[in-house]
Design goal:
Layout lengths: L1 E3 H28 L2 E3 L7 E3 L1 E6 L7 E6 L13 E14 L6 E5 L14 E8 L6 H10 L4
Antiparallel strand pairs: 1-7, 2-3, 4-5, 6-7, 6-8
Length: 147
C-alpha cells in the first residue's frame, strides 16, 4: 500500500489525538456518574453522597456525608508518551495533483516477493502536556466542609 509521507504522519498524529480525547471523554463521563442532574433548562449537578461512619468498623462514631467523587481514583488513564514504529520502503515521488511528496510503501517487511528490499523504520514519539486539574479542584472544594 502506497501513501504519501505527509498523509502518513498526519493520520498517525490525528489518531493519537483522537485516542487521547476519547480517554479524556470517558474519564469525564465516569466522573459525572458521581453527580445527579436536576431537570432544569440549565442543569445543576449535585454530588451523590454516601454516609460513612468513622472510625470504620465501630457501632458508634461520627457519620459523614462523603461525595462519591471523593472516593474515585483521581489519576485517570493517560497517554503521556506514545511511540509509533512503522517499517516502510521509499518507493518514489508523487507529482500529481494535491498529493505531491515522497511515496512510502507500508507493507510489512516480510514481503515474500522481494525479501531483499531495504525497508526503513520510522519511529514517532508523542508526548502530552500535563492534564487539566479541573476535576481535582472540584473534589478539593467539595471536601472542604468535611475537614
Amino acid at each position: 500500500m502506497e501513501v504519501t509521507f505527509q498523509d502518513l504522519i498526519t493520520s498517525i498524529g490525528v489518531s493519537v489525538q483522537e485516542a487521547r480525547r476519547a480517554i479524556e471523554d470517558a474519564a469525564m463521563e465516569l466522573y459525572f456518574q458521581g453527580y445527579e442532574k436536576d431537570s432544569a433548562d440549565q442543569p445543576v449537578y449535585t454530588p451523590i453522597q454516601r454516609r460513612i461512619r468513622l472510625p470504620l468498623g465501630t457501632a458508634s462514631g461520627k457519620i459523614l456525608e462523603v461525595p462519591v467523587t471523593a472516593l474515585y481514583h483521581h489519576n485517570v488513564m493517560e497517554l503521556d508518551n506514545v511511540t509509533v514504529k512503522l517499517k516502510f520502503l521509499p518507493c518514489g515521488v508523487s507529482q500529481s495533483g494535491e498529493k505531491k511528496g515522497l511515496l512510502l510503501d507500508v507493507q510489512p517487511s516480510e514481503n515474500e516477493e522481494h525479501p531483499e528490499l531495504p525497508y526503513s523504520e520510522l519511529s514517532l514519539s508523542f508526548q502530552s502536556s500535563s492534564a487539566p486539574e479541573g476535576m481535582a479542584r472540584v473534589n478539593e472544594h467539595s471536601l472542604k466542609p468535611l475537614s
